[in-house]
Amino acid sequence: MSQTLNPAQRRKAWWTAGVAGMASYMDAGAIVTTGTALVLYREEFGFTEFQYGQLSALLTAMIAVGALIGGPLSDRFGRKRVFTLTLILYVIAAAILVLAPGVGWLYLGILLLGFASGADLPPSLAMIAESAPEGEEGKFVTLSHALWMIVIPIVNVIGIFAGNMGVDGARLMYGHLLLVALVVLVLRWRLPESQMWQDKKNAVETGTIDRASLKVLFGRTYIWALIGVSLFYGIQNIAANTNGQFAIFLFTDVGGASVSTASLLNVVAVLIGLVGTFLVMRFSDTPLRMPLFLVGTVLAILAWALPGMLGVTTVTVFVMAALFWFAQQPSGEPMFKIWSQEIFPTEYRGAAQGIAIAFTRAVAAGAALLTPVILDASITVFFFSIAGVLLVAGLIGWFWVSRMPQVLHKEKTLGPRGAEALTGDRPAS
Predict the structure, then answer these.
(1) Which of 332, 277, 278, 285 has its CA nearest to residue 304?
(2) In this protein, which residues make up the domain named Major facilitator superfamily (MFS) profile (predicted)?
């Protein structure tokens, strides 16, 4: 298929990937923006530390709930319908947070923002994979992760200017999300429905195939793939989430850097990671995918082990952050996004992703509670623990998930009944 696309068709495929992939931009934007904006709102509204913790936890919890609900709904009612409705909800939530007159409105806005962010992810990623040229799905899906990475320095730069503006700065930061969401909503309105989803729907209506049931997803054909991809993403994300939540703390309270220096170094580390994302886009659909996964896993483990071996300083923490941001691209979340498209059929693709994302958010929340305890007990144990977590995730990815049959390719080749060829199939390389 990819060899027969004309330039106009390829531009359309990239356009779909970019517009749908903005779900990842909105997701990361919600997380990073809320981390800073709550500090500014707290100065104005005077809410307690307990309320601050509640609001932060509420965002994470609702992203998990949203993914768990949005995924199955997109399998049942279509990718476009669901991710259009979720983005409308995102716009409403961002508007509430921009205009919030008190802390009670923050609870409502963050609840809706988290739910909309989570529910938007599975149908958006499925749309990208199903609309991508055959044999290039990895490249197109990885674009969504590049958008996830790009928003981090953008929000950080906005935060530099908004940090001294008090509550107006918080409103400005959420205003950025509102503006972007409105633009994306207009662009998404013109996207056609996923042709693969439409073909599957037509096949069900004509009786060619049976209507999907979630019982099948939990049956022997797909359950091990679901468990494998969920464990891989959930365990690997412990390191990624810890790096995102505690990087500034490690730079300042442990490494001795100032907040401004820490913020600058963290942005540089993220930009280095973005280079790794484009590396994945270049090679994820080639035989070099798994060798890069192996190299990325080894480098990620080494990144976290370095401060444990050499001591925690500004230099070692920066090397750890930069190396890990780079290494996790071929060995972390981008691979989850690719694998979760490839190994589940169209009628279960959204639901499977929703379950994996929800599980991962729950694991991340639990790990965030334990991290300060481990840091307080032993810095060395903390860094080697994260290195160990990455080793476990790498083993699951290499020996388990990567060997699952690639159903997506069969569907694109054989049509709606392609997933039925899964039984007895050889593992994909």
Answers:
(1) 332
(2) 13-405
Mean of pLDDT values over 311-331 = 90
Measured distance CA(385)–CA(312) in Å, rounded:
15
Q: How many beta carbons lie within 10 A of that of residue 108, not counting itself?
A: 14
Q: What is the pLDDT of residue 205?
A: 75
- Phi and psi at 427, nearest 5°, equal -60, 145
Q: How many CB atoms lie within 10 A of CB 331?
A: 27
Rounded to an integer, what distance in angstroms lies between the CA atom of residue 64 and that of residue 362?
7
- Distance in angstroms (rounded) separating the CA atoms of residues 324 and 318: 10
Q: Which amino acid is at 174?
A: Y
pTM of the prediction?
0.87
- Side-chain-side CA neighbours of 126 within 13 Å: the count stands at 37
Rounded Cα distance, 71 and 14, in Å: 23
* Residue 22 and residue 16 in contact, taking contact as beta carbons nearer than 8 Å: no
Total residues found in the chain within this entry:
429
Residue 69 has pLDDT above 60, yes or no: yes
DSSP tally for the chain: helices H, then strands E: 16, 0
Cβ proximity of 51 and 172 under 8 Å: no
Contacts of 361 (CB under 8 A, 6+ apart): 60, 61, 63, 64, 67, 118
Summarised one tens digit per residue, pLDDT across range 7-26 is 787 888 899 999 999 999 99
Q: CA angle, corner 91, sides to 124 and 36, nearest 5?
A: 95
Q: Tell me what pLDDT residue 211 has.
A: 64
Q: What is the mean pLDDT of residues 114-141?
A: 92
Q: What local confidence, expressed as pLDDT, does residue 89 receive?
A: 96
Segment 210-220 shows an average pLDDT of: 74
Q: Is there a contact between 327 and 393 (Cβ–Cβ < 8 Å)?
A: no
Long-range contacts of 48-57 (CB under 8 A, 24+ apart): 51/103, 54/107, 55/106, 55/107, 55/110, 57/365
How far apart, in whole angstroms, are the C-alpha atoms of residue 122 and residue 72? 9
- Contacts of residue 307, defined as CB under 8 A and 6 or more positions apart, other chains included, come to 313, 316, 317, 320, 379, 383
Chain mean position to CA 379 = 28
Going from the C-alpha of 102 to that of each of 55, 109, 169, the distances in angstroms are 13, 11, 15
